[in-house]
Amino acid sequence: MLRVVIADDSRVMRQIVVRTLRQAGYEWDVTEAADGAEAFAIARAEQPDLVLSDWNMPNMTGIDLLRALRAAGDDVPFGFVTSEGSPEMREQADAAGALFLVAKPFTAESFRDVIEPVLA
Amino acid sequence: MSTLAPFMTAQIEAIAEEVFAAMVDGEPGHLVPLPAPAELTDPLYAWVDMHADVSGRALIATDVTTAHALARALLGMPDDEPVGEADLVDAFGEVANVVGGNLKALLPVQGTLTLPRVGRPVPALAGATKVDEVALSWRGLPLDITVWQI
């Protein structure tokens, strides 16, 4: 079973992401993180198969989380799930090494579209 | 000083309808435009601020009972299950966050988006200018979205 870390400061949104992943057919082992700093610690300690992260979070933002992971030599597959899907942010995400950016609101199809290529 | 240009009403309605269809209801058709804002009897507010070359606020207002129903829908809770204050604030704030984030993406100059806030008094808007107002009905319950230059 794949292990995924879901980082979002909203417990409600984490729950919606988990529910939507299940609707998309992904029955994964999920670990939740309430901000980027917590996600960084979990990702480094547990070496998950994928990190799905919000962008705008207290303590450490999603983009800072991704940059910190890469700076630490951690190449864990990483995708953003964020309400701000502007072209500028997609460019920043891509430049930092993210595999994809899913804009909220999302559907099960939104996740399948970006995750299937990662699993292939 | 730069000014925040109004969004098109249709853009705000389309974003709100998409947010509710995907996150709240799981299907479209439950959030519809109203011809004019309905009076709220016990309003609760959720908002995010956008800061770029201009600063704006996306503010959602609805009755407390509607916000509770929204939280139950977002969390997949039964209709009669009580909602805790933390979940209420989290859920209603996240609706404002997603609506505000999508509106910010339409701005010509990107900037930062604050974390969402939720409160019962009208948030301080001294000197602010209302640039948009969209009246909506979610499952027959009034919900208003306004955008302010702050």
Secondary-structure class of chain B: alpha+beta
Mean pLDDT of chain A: 96
Rg of chain A (CA only)? 13 Å
Q: Please give the number of β-strands of chain A.
A: 5
Which CATH-level-2 architecture of chain B?
A: 3-Layer(aba) Sandwich
Determine the fraction of residues in helical runs of chain A and give it as a percent range: 40-55%
Structural class of chain A: alpha/beta
Largest beta sheet: strand ordering of chain A: 2-1-3-4-5
Main beta-sheet strand count, sense and barrel state of chain B: 7 strands, antiparallel
Unreliable stretches covering 5 or more consecutive residues of chain A = none
Q: Measured on Cα atoms, how large is the radius of gyration of chain B?
A: 15 Å
Shape type of chain B: globular
- Could you give the order of the helices and strands of chain A? EHEHEHEHEH
Order of helices and strands of chain B: HEEEHHEEEE
In quaternary terms, these chains amount to: heterodimer
Descriptive tags:
heterodimer, A: 120 residues, alpha/beta, five-stranded parallel β-sheet, 5 helices, 47% helix, 19% strand, B: 150 residues, alpha+beta, Chemotaxis protein chec, globular
How would you explain this protein's 3D organization?
- Chain A has five helices and five strands, in the order βαβαβαβαβα.
- Chain A has helices spanning 11-23, 36-46, 62-71, 87-96, 108-119; strands at residues 3-7, 29-33, 50-53, 78-82, 100-103.
- With 120 residues, chain A is an alpha/beta fold.
- Chain B is of the alpha+beta class.
- Chain B has one domain: 3-Layer(aba) Sandwich (Chemotaxis protein chec), CATH 3.40.1550.10.
- Helices cover 33% and strands 30% of the residues of chain B.
- The longest helix of chain B has 20 residues, at 85-104.
- The relative contact order of chain B is 0.27.
- The model of chain B has no long low-confidence stretch (mean pLDDT 92).
- At the A-B interface, helix 1 of A face helix 1, helix 2 and helix 3 of B.
